[in-house]
Structure formats: structure tokens, C-alpha cells
Amino acid sequence: MTSPRPRRDHQPSTPVPQPSASHSGVPFVVCRPLLLTSDLRPPFSRRRAIVHPMNKIGVTYHPKSEAARSVAEEIRRRIAATNVDVWVASAWDDEMREEHVAESDLVICCGGDGTVLRAARAVIPHPVTLLGVNLGRLGFLTEITPAELFERLPDVLAGAGRVETRAMVQTETLRAGEETAQHFHALNDAVVGRTAIGRTVQFTVRTDDTMLGSYRADGVIIATATGSTAYSLSVGGPILHPESREIIVTPVAPHLAPANSIVLPEGSRVEVQIAPRQSAILSVDGEPDQDLAGGDVVRVRMSQHTARFLRLGPPGEFYVRVGRRLNWLTE
Which listed residue, 17, 224, 304, 321, has the most CB atoms within 10 A of its CB? Predict the structure, then answer.
């Protein structure tokens, strides 16, 4: 009989970030950009149920892209020929989506990452799976090209692939201590930023009632693992595994303080409070905008909703896709 392995507590491979002090006396937390995962559990994608055959499929497209519209119509034509129920709508056609999305098994998004982000919010609260077709430029969220989709369409209709589940965050705003009626869900990030070019905004950041820092900066990004390859990455934030459930907090161009990120564990609550006599804007996944005034608090935490993506390749393909987009790898 094999003797059991000695128990080994899970410890991070790098030192836990420690508070420091900047030259201005403002506290900040140093965190080197790292590729992190939540814990020792197997990746979510290995534990997902097998995708079932499709009974109803939606196709959305970016309304300002004639190429996206053309591809969407061709997808509709090919699906209709198989006697599967299919509908087509502009990504901005909220009425059409609301009419059909609840009964849909899959929504195919033709465009760029922005089209996919919009679809991820639009299908809430229904557990509808998304498949992104890349007609944009970056394509971190889009899975395949139009030609690849046409080739694999019979497999998709038969239920091939795996479901990759992405965490989302939700925001709520407190004004004079009371919650406002505006609540948003984000797949990428929530950003509290300045109202005009050439100005900064002063704010404090707390997590679970603990002060992280007080900043005068262009803004702060609170990002999901999906958002770790978006705006957060452009200001030096770390890249997380796509199914991680940590939250990244990154100040944008802070004055007299390093712009280091901090990665918070699942379940954390982040609060950004605007300083008195200041003004700011809350942007969620790049839209919509909410005006903020001095004293307002934006609270960000993990959403109960998730985004489900149909993936036709192996889990490791994420790293290849990121490597190619960032020129770490050649095509």
C-alpha cells in the first residue's frame, strides 16, 4: 500500500504584497504582474457538463460593420437549412434579444470583443452560451474566424466543444449613504475615472473595510480575469487565467505613487470613494457612464451571474491566443 503524500499547505510562490509608503506619504500596495490561478482545484473547464445539441440559436452582429452583418446572415442561412430554430439581430437591438434569448441555447456574436461584451450582459440572467466570431482587431474573447465557423458548424449544432465559465462583477453606487437605482454587471471591468483630459481625480480605495490607498490619479480599474487582458493590461496589470475569480485593482497614472496592481481573492468587495468637491465617471465595460460626485462610493464585488463561452479548442489555447495577440509568439 502506498503511503499517503505529506500534506503541503498551498502557499503563493511569491511573497505576499506588503503595504509601503510613497514619497508623498500615500500608502500603496506593490504587486508584480503575475499569471495567477485561484487555488488547487482543477480548472473549471475540466469540470463542465458536455454541451448538448442546439435547439435554438441566436446570431448577433455589430450594426456598423457590413462584414459582420453579411457573416451573420450567412450563418443564419446555414443554420436554417438544418431545421434548427435561428434568429438574427443587431447587437444593439435590445427588444429582439429580449424576445428570443431566454429560449436560446447559444448566441453567436459576429464582430469584435465589444460585441461579445455586450452580449454577455444582454443574456443576464439566462445561462446562455456565447460563441464569438472574430471580425474585429484583437479577438481575446472571440473564438474562431468566419471560415472556421462554417467548417465547424455541424459540430457546433451537434453539441461539440466545452463550456468555459467567466466571472463577472457587479457595481452599485452609494450617494449620501444610500444606494442609487443604478446597478451594472461587467465581464471586463468597472473603471472610475476623471471627467476631462488634463485633470486628475482624488479618491480612496478600500477592500472589505481595509484601506488600500488614497490616490490622485486618472482613475482606477477594477477588473475580472477576463478584463485582465483589456484596459488593465494596458496599464501594466497582470494576466489571470480566464476562469479565475480574483479581482484586480489597478490605479491609472497615480501622481507621486507607483501604479502597481493588487490581486484580491474571490469574495472581496472593493469600494472607491470620491473625495469631497471632486467629480468622476463610472464606466462599466466601456459603457454606460454614470456621473459621480464628491462623497459618492462605488462598490464592486463578484456578480452572481457568469458568462459562458463555447470553446472548440483545448484549454491551453488561451495562452496561445494571448501570446499571439501580444507578439510573444509568431503565427
Answer: 224
